[in-house]
Design a protein that fits this description.
Length: 189
């Protein structure tokens, strides 16, 4: 099978790419992440993926569009549902690209993260796959998280400390403490 894999960042791509290749499938990456803020963060993730893909011989389709204003316009009035919008936005773009280029299936490295809503990603991918007529490749890639982390460190890849959007950047620093205001804390991803 030929699978188009949405890639949010190089770190999250390591384990899924290895797993898909181990199963004898061909994998091509697809970078489309218009939610990432600020632009410097977006650029670091893009550059890191380019570095990684060259190192492991991965072909990647880059949809290098920084659509921050559009993303914010769509989520600012429904902040609690922002992840649903973000998943759908990126998975729909990946599915459309996969269908246009005659891939057999599409998937996402978001399924590797222990910080994402795994069930919602799967549900969204399967729904979009049915709507567009291209199967969603589901695999729980979280088991490879630790190995991906080790490979990422050994390759010297940039490692981000939050999901990517402006809201997750804020949450990385501010967590409510019991009975009070914000507690400054950073959680590495």
């Amino acid at each position: 099978m030929k699978i188009l894999l949405h890639i949010c960042c190089a770190n999250c791509a390591i384990s899924p790419i290895e797993k898909i290749r181990e199963e004898g499938n061909e994998v091509v990456g697809y970078f489309f992440n218009p939610n990432i803020h600020p632009y410097q963060e977006y650029q670091k993730r893009l550059d890191s993926l380019k570095q990684y893909s060259e190192r492991v011989g991965l072909n990647v389709i880059y949809r290098d569009e920084y659509l921050l204003e559009e993303f914010l316009k769509n989520v600012s009035h429904r902040v609690k549902e922002r992840c649903q919008h973000c998943y759908a936005l990126r998975l729909e773009a990946t599915a459309q690209e996969a269908k246009e280029r005659n891939f057999d299936q599409f998937s996402t490295t978001l399924l590797q993260s222990t910080h994402q809503d795994h069930a919602l990603i799967r549900e969204t991918g399967e729904r979009i796959g049915k709507e567009l007529g291209i199967p969603f490749y589901y695999e729980d890639f979280r088991q490879g998280w630790r190995k991906g982390l080790e490979v990422s460190k050994s390759f010297g890849l940039y490692r981000q400390e939050y999901c990517g959007c402006i809201y997750s950047e804020k949450e990385r620093f501010f967590q409510k403490v019991e009975g009070g205001g914000p507690k400054v804390e950073s959680k590495p991803r």
